[in-house]
Amino acid sequence: MKLKVESIDSLGRHILVEAWGCRDDALDDLPGIRQAMVEAAEAAGATVLDVSFRKFAPQGVSGVVIISESHLTIHTWPEHGYAAIDLFTCGERARPWKAFEVLSDFLGADQITTMEIRRGEIGELRRAKKSETDFVYLHEYGGSKQESGF
């Protein structure tokens, strides 16, 4: 399916979640986390394609739900009462904040911080296509900035 660029302002929405003071029993519960993540994807109206989760020793769970619209990921640190969550959806149909609500309820966190990033903003894409300049990628490696031209 080809996206109609004129009808949306970005290609995707990426919600980053920092969850502190989560329920102890939730953060180390692989089956519970897996179920909550799949339910979150479904609540968002996304199409689940694949699911992969791992439990770590002595504690912690990491997992990903691959959806047609992108992905949902979680990494937990029960010893800190903390979970890091990414909810990335592309297109107009999926609703990542619905996924957030499901996971927020499951984790029962005392404090949650979120940030939404619009990925592939259409105005930026149009400007980039019209630009005649070469792409320059700036990155840091070993404490020094380096420039790579493409």
Order of SSEs, N→C? Answer: EHHEEEEHEHEE
Rounded average pLDDT: 86
The gyration radius over C-alpha positions equals 18 Å
Taken together, the total number of domains comes to 1
First-residue to last-residue Cα separation: 29 Å
Task: Give your account of this protein's structure.
With 150 residues, the protein is α+β, with helices and mostly antiparallel strands. It has a single domain (5-149), classed as S-adenosylmethionine decarboxylase. It is 26% helix and 44% strand. It contains 4 helices and 8 strands, in the order E-H-H-E-E-E-E-H-E-H-E-E. The protein has helices at 24-27, 30-43, 96-107, 122-130; strands at 10-20, 48-55, 61-67, 70-77, 82-90, 111-121, 136-141, 144-149. It has a 6-stranded antiparallel sheet with strand order 2-3-4-5-1-6. Strand 7 (136-141) and strand 8 form a beta hairpin. Helix 2 (30-43) runs antiparallel to helix 3. The longest helix is centred in the first third of the chain and has 14 residues, at 30-43. It is elongated, with a radius of gyration of 18 Å. The protein starts with 9 loop residues before the first strand and ends with a strand. Residues 1-7 and 146-150 have low confidence and may be disordered.
Write the layout of secondary structure elements.
Layout: E1 10-20, H1 24-27, H2 30-43, E2 48-55, E3 61-67, E4 70-77, E5 82-90, H3 96-107, E6 111-121, H4 122-130, E7 136-141, E8 144-149
Antiparallel strand pairs: 1-5, 1-6, 2-3, 3-4, 4-5, 7-8
Keywords:
150 residues; alpha+beta; S-adenosylmethionine decarboxylase; two-stranded antiparallel sheet; 4 helices; 26% helix; 44% strand; disordered N terminus; disordered C terminus
